[in-house]
Amino acid sequence: MEATVELHTIASGQGPLTLVFLHYFGGSAAEWQAVAAQLEIKHRCVAVDLRGHGDSPAPKAGYSVDDMTDDVVGTLEQLAVDQYILIGHSMSGKVVLNLASRQPVGLQQVLLVSPSPPHPEPIPEKDRKEMLETHGTEQAAVKTFENITAKPVSRADRQQIITDNLRTSEVAWDAWLTAGSKEDIADRMSRVVVPVSIIAGNKDNALSPDVQPELTLPTLPNATFEVLDGAGHLIPYEMPDALVHFITKKISPGLPGNS
């Protein structure tokens, strides 16, 4: 195990329940701004940059799923987060499920957006090779943006997505593609005892929605799964209102408008 690092966070709102947001591979906490802006009215929202991403430190080692999980645990302790919901997107879905398997005190439930499955993520080897060889170039970042979005986003969001891709450290980028995404933590999923809800876009070119019933749901027999029509991989940017609705109905089932 590597030493934990102090992760950069974006915090807003207040309330007895904290929503902890974790981002996709090559992204940052910034992806959650439009979602948090609606939820911070009633809840404390904390969006986190994982090591090597966004504004968090990029040590030379320590990019296993357990290492990234340890960082998040340390951050939650530092921020005195007690009652909370973990919301993980893509790569961070694997981190969130790993953390949930440790049965931390205060964790209420897990919400996953197009998560990397507990089993090895099925990234085609040619895609893996291309991403390893071209990362850091504007052309590759633009190509990735065009591939992982299915709905139009604002010019500012487009630039944020490309910028986050380019500023992801080479060590974090390479580690996820060569090791982290290939980790198999499926045997730990029987220890996840909180409710798990999953949502994915039906036009996701980065992580097909078929991955969830094939590689995630069999390990989590009580998890729920729904598909969002028209969305690509970056639902927090592409359809933030729909994602807020999904989160709200899971947090407060039975309330008017949340059925």
Task: Please provide a brief summary of the model.
With 259 residues, this protein is of the alpha/beta class. It has helices at residues 33-39, 65-78, 91-101, 125-134, 138-148, 155-167, 170-178, 211-216, 235-238, 240-251; strands at residues 9-12, 18-22, 44-48, 84-89, 107-113, 196-201, 224-228.
What is the CATH topology descriptor?
Answer: Rossmann fold
Q: Which architecture does the CATH hierarchy give at level 2? A: 3-Layer(aba) Sandwich
Specify the helix fraction band: 25-40%
By secondary-structure content and strand pairing, the structural class works out as alpha/beta
Largest sheet: 7 strands, mixed
Name the CATH superfamily classification.
Alpha/Beta hydrolase fold, catalytic domain
The H/E string reads EEHEHEHEHHHHEHEHH
Question: What shape does the CA trace take?
Answer: globular
In round numbers, the mean pLDDT is: 95
Domain AB hydrolase-1: 19-244
Pfam families: Abhydrolase_6
Keywords: Hydrolase
Protein name: Alpha/beta hydrolase
